[in-house]
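Researcher: Structure for this, please.
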Amino acid sequence: MTLNRMLYISTAVGPITTAVTGTILRSAQAYNAAHGITGVLCQGRGVYLQVLEGEKSRIESLYDRIVLDKRHHNMALRQQHDIDRRRYGNWAMAHVDMSHLEEAQAGGGQQITFDPYLATADDVMARIDALIAAGKVMDAPVV
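Model: Predicted structure, token format:
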């Protein structure tokens, strides 16, 4: 079995509410646990970032289903590649609050806003890892 990791970004259609996020998470956690998929869902500021890890054909099949979900649009597959081991292997789907992605004040008092559509995929992954390291994981049942 070849392990694969996929990172995509999308924009929410309408507000991202606790009810919408909860529905997405419960569905993802159940489906992923049954299909050997792990990962993390980051949401906030109208954007979703999701990393899926697992057998390549399974995550591609899941991605094909996700693309059809009417709760988001502007899908951008940012990265997909084979991996030796899972980065988020403890979680069928962790939930991370992305509202803390703003960078510290830049020179001149300007705030720099992180735009995951413009950032490199490696920078997006680094931001996700930084949020996890900072304890921003909100809902992550261990598999």
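Researcher: Any notable elements?
Model: Residues 19 and 50 are 18 Å apart (CA to CA). The first strand starts at residue 3 and ends at 12.
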